[in-house]
Amino acid sequence: MVFNCLTFNHPSTDLWKRAKKFHSNCLANVFSEGMVGYDPTPSKYAEKVEEQYRKAREFVEQELERTRKDETAEKKVSERRAAST
Predict the structure, then answer these.
(1) pLDDT for residue 31
(2) Less Cβ crowding at N or C end of the chain, within 10 Å?
């Protein structure tokens, strides 16, 4: 479920963020050592989920770099705000 959500949704969406939070909470509270669901072997999706997290970090970094290079980005935001009022 988490893998599908991370794969088919954009990292900035609420669904993607909720899936990441759900995954973190499950690892900490359900699958941690001493808990009922604890298993020291990673699931077949563990590496795939980590890959999706890596891709999301790369996307965010690329987007930040793109907006830094776009000298008109701040001007565009100001123009949109002015037009909407």
Answers:
(1) 74
(2) C
